[in-house]
Amino acid sequence: MSLSIRHFTRTYAVAGGPFTAVDDLSMDVGAGEIVGLIGPNGAGKTTTLRSVAGILRPTSGHIAIDGHDLVSDSIAAKQRLAFMPDEPHLFEYLTVEEHLRLMARIYGVDDFERRARALIEELELTGKERSLPGELSRGMRQKVVIACGLVRNASTLLFDEPLTGLDPVGIRRMRETIVGRAKAGACIVVSSHLLHLVQEVCTRVIIMDHGRKIADGTVAELASRADLTAAGSSLEQIFMRVTGHDVEVGSSKSEV
Amino acid sequence: MLSASLYIILCSAKNRVRARLRRLREPRYLVGAIAGVAYLYFAVFMRIGARRATRPGAGPPPELFAGSFQGIATIVAGVVMLVLAALTWVFPSNGAMFEFSAAETNLLFPAPVTRRQLLIHRLMRSQLGFLFASCAAAFVITAPRLSGALGLGSVAARLLRAIAFWVLFVTLRVYSSGVTLARARLTSSDPRMRRIAWTPLVAIAAAVTAVGVPLVRSLSSQPPRSLRQTVARISELTATGAPRIMLAPFVSLVRPFFTDGLGSYLIALVGALAVTAVTIGWVLWSDEAFQNGGDEPAQSREGRSSVPNAPRARVIPWRLRLTGRVETLFLWKNGMQTLRTTDLMTVLPYAFPAVVLAVVGATARMSALGARGPAVGFAVASLLVAAFCALIGPQMMRSDLRGDLIHLDLLKTWPVKASAVIRGQILWPIALLTLFTWGALACGTVFSAPAFPRWTLAWRLSLSALAFVLAPALIAAKFTVHNAAAVLFPAWVPTGRQRPRGLDAMGQRLILFAGVMLSLIVLVGPGAIAGGIVTFAFLRLIGPVILVPAGLVCLAIVAVELALVTEMLGGAYERIDLSQVERSE
């Protein structure tokens, strides 16, 4: 199993007392699987991804990448991981090519030149190799972040809103990239509010709300669940039903 | 627009105060606030009270405030202002007057208001900060007897000083913004834009020439024997003719600080305000001219900020190797940051030989003339620069983990050893500051020949070598302590460009400063003691040369300690909670 999460809980200390962002989450994602992590704002998706990426420490529970525990064996676990956040955080003083080189050095990429060239072409960054992040559009910066994640052979890829800022061509390429990496054996988790993207590319969907997992399965499995049959086969309708928003939407429509 | 500006300023101030009061519920801010209030009470109000209590017996203002002193001090301060004004063209600030928040850019720029109104709004927005800084400066810095010289009570005198500081701060800020604006157009393709941009630079250059040439000529032909003589000569040469005219605006700006009565203060204040008004007018006018000319600097066209310390995509002949230690990776990364955000690569090839030539030439001339006074001055100045680099530099230069806290979410995903990250982060700033310190020490060593002719060559060289050896130890220890603070108390280390403000933030800084100093003593103490023992044990046997091995002993001990400390900090780095990292207001 590529990614294993067991009884993961994460709380934050806030002025009003501890706030639980993710509560007792357990899930497994296997090689070749693309899992869509969806939920309303504040559901705990980003906290989950950031914890899996090693940015936040779990308050309790265990996260393992290819059997390596993220806390006790963090270097081995992180070596197998690539995290593409929604906000393109780059070093403002390093060029695109230098970012890729930096990642290659950190992760020990052997055939860097070939991989970098291919990625730059794949992500349409040709001609921008010597540009600083400040000279790039948001979409371009997002592509650089993705390139940094893909320049090494990670077994687990985490995408947080991967399509933010991308143009239509970029969106199509991104979808192909995600599917292609899964076919090559990577385990992929995609967090997104774009439910049509999730339905299209993901092999499985996990719906979270208020820090808890409230649904887990393929779209077909969810649609056939006894309490969701009325929702139909669309992920959007399933999502609305599971999170209890279908009633609100229906009532506001009737009011109009 | 004026009412809208006031509304924004007042609402922002009110909400900021609310937010600061609300955050006192968190212990880190509460502790900071207590420390800040205690500092203000003991450092300012207690002092004021104590002075008020002793005032009846204080007697008349001392001779220090006699007319001659005030005249000399005003002129010297004016010369300092002129030098500052000239240096602003060489080392520009960030042009704060033209920096708008994202909210201002998105909400006010599309609004039906003129560019001038926006700039005035921006200027008004910064006034609360200036007022606070002015009051702080007036209450902390004001010399105890100055209020007596003004013939006013202590608090009233301080308020008048605060106004003088406020005028000075506003003028300096507006001027530096204007310089940033003009500097970006010096190479404009439009001749009119170029003329507008070059005019203030030519004016400053003319002032520097008018004041500097006679000064340099006089000081080099007849070197003064002491600091008092130097000051008297500066005062004498700038009191008449072209230097006096050129210095007039700079002297006017500082005159309110050196008056001896309310009447003369008010007259001086009018002069200072006139300088401020002219500066604001110049900046608004040139901004309008540049805008109308449609002449945007190249980097703005590319969508980048025209802020001077924004990185530039210049080619640096330093490529990261694909294999190697984690520490050297950070050395490269932080090196690129410095080289891309400063003009070091451009300036150094010219500055280095120029400094070498100047130091060697000046030393030879001073030796030939037997001018010990200036030589002592240069030697002491060099040592002060070295001390500044070694002691204050690590606090200011934040191209280490403190600067990278903003990228912590990225760094934490990297599969690298935490202790190696910490060591790597401090490697570049240590190397750079050590180089600067060594440069200043080398200058001091050369100047020491004519400055201290009674000292033997062996003593001078040994002391110099000791300083060369100890400098990296001290700098490394300071960086380690500062970065340890960032790892152990990330919540107290500001990230990004914004600095947290308020009493609680001030208290936090005071506590951190005390902790840093204490840790530094603990870290350097054992090495210093061991080095001292070696010196005293063998000084009589070997002579001053023993200072070198003693310094090396100290360096070795500090190096071992630093390796151990950074290794221990690795665990703390792993446990850093990003949700506790300081957030901007």
Give a quick set of tags describing it.
heterodimer, A: 256 residues, alpha/beta, 10 strands, B: 585 residues, mainly alpha, 3 domains, globular
How would you explain this protein's 3D organization?
The complex is a heterodimer of chains A (256) and B (585). By secondary structure, chain A is of the alpha/beta class. Chain A has ten helices and ten strands. Chain A has a six-stranded mixed beta sheet, sandwiched between helices. Chain A is globular and about 55 Å long. Chain B is mostly helical and 585 residues long. Chain B has three domains: 1-56, no CATH class; 61-306, no CATH class; 326-580, no CATH class. Chain B is built from 22 helices and no strands. The longest helix of chain B is centred in the C-terminal third of the chain and has 40 residues, at 503-542. Chain B is globular, with a radius of gyration of 26 Å. Chain B starts with a helix and ends in a 10-residue tail after the last helix. The model of chain B is unreliable at 61-65 and 297-308 (pLDDT under 50).
Short structural description:
Chain A has 256 residues and is an alpha/beta fold. Chain A contains 10 helices and 10 strands.
Count of DSSP E strands of chain B? Answer: 0
- Low-confidence runs of chain B: 61-65, 297-308
The domain tally of chain B reads 3
Instruction: Give the terminus-to-terminus CA distance of chain B.
Output: 25 Å
Please give the order of strands in the largest beta sheet of chain A: 6-7-8-3-9-10
Structural class of chain A: alpha/beta
| Class from secondary-structure proportions of chain B | mainly alpha
Spatial shape of chain A: globular
**Ends apart, CA distance between termini of chain A:** 49 Å
Weakly predicted, low-confidence segments of chain A: none
Number of strands of chain A: 10
Report the sheet-strand fraction of chain B: under 5%
Biggest sheet statistics of chain B:
none
| Mean pLDDT over all positions of chain A | 89
Q: Which protein chains make the most extensive interface, counting residues with beta carbons within 8 Å of the other chain's beta carbons?
A: A-B, 40 and 42 residues
Give the overall shape of chain B, derived from the CA principal axes. globular
Mean pLDDT of chain B: 84
Succession of helices and strands of chain A: EEEHEEHEHHHEHEHEEHHH
